[in-house]
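Practice problem: predict the structure.
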Amino acid sequence: MRVLITGGAGFIGSHLAERLLATGHEVTALDDLSTGNMQNLGACMGNPRFRFVQDDVRNSQTLHILTEQSDMVYHLAAAVGVQLIVDEPVRTIETNIHGSEVVLAIANKFRKPVLIASTSEVYGKSDKVPFREDDDTVFGATHYSRWSYACSKAIDEFLGLAYHQQYGLPVVVARFFNTVGPRQTGRYGMVIPRFVEAALRGDPLQIYGTGRQSRCFGYVGDVVDAVIALMNCKGAPGRVYNIGSTEEISIEALADKIIEMTGSHSKKQHLSYEEAYGRSFDDMMRRIPCLDRIRSVIGYEPKTPLTEILRLVIAEKKEMLAGQRRRS
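Answer:
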């Protein structure tokens, strides 16, 4: 099978590429490297069944060629991370919406199945937990730029499902819930790598808001297995699927756990959202997925507990810091 991954040099995309190569597929990774990193693809680059193309997902000429040469498309290219979304809302909206427009139109031309990567952000400020795929969404006011990301991904979902309904294009929508693991960077606000890096340096772990807000962190390896299984399931297209873990933890407790696991002497530092992002920020207190639908379709169960995820991330960040010290 020939597979195209947009956003293929990103955190999730690179793990997906590795897994597909390991099972004998040919993989083309498309990425503009604005947030992706070639180092993520280190294990792929020597493989004769792997190809990397540096370009923007919105370039229809490139997408036309690559999609025609592929059997299926995993569309992961998007603006990522709360910090980037707050800082660059125009880029967020244009990349997410127009990128998906291009991918879906060309996939439909060649009748190639597509997986659209979405996000738990589309549930917005809903407090009806656990979140079910058909629940109503509750967005905040438009002057909070974080909701531009949620709305742009909701538009992606609408468009993907419309292509399925109107044209019969096989489209699967995957809503990721806080996917984490090795290779994830803290540069764009992702909390686990940000906390781990601070703890290993002995810096304060900066908690935004009260710290009482809670999240469920899904391991990237489990998520990758799930999206591959969905794309191989004939009954999956035309629906939305939550993918993540149901192991809930508050951000305050997460900071405590990371300090303990790293043996750090770091302290916790609470910042208001205005201090953290330079402007007001709308957040939600809990984000927990209901996994009944994906469980019924492919038998998905998250396998990797948070403690093991943190162990893997801590080991990776320790190695990175040691390498930086050796080079300095």
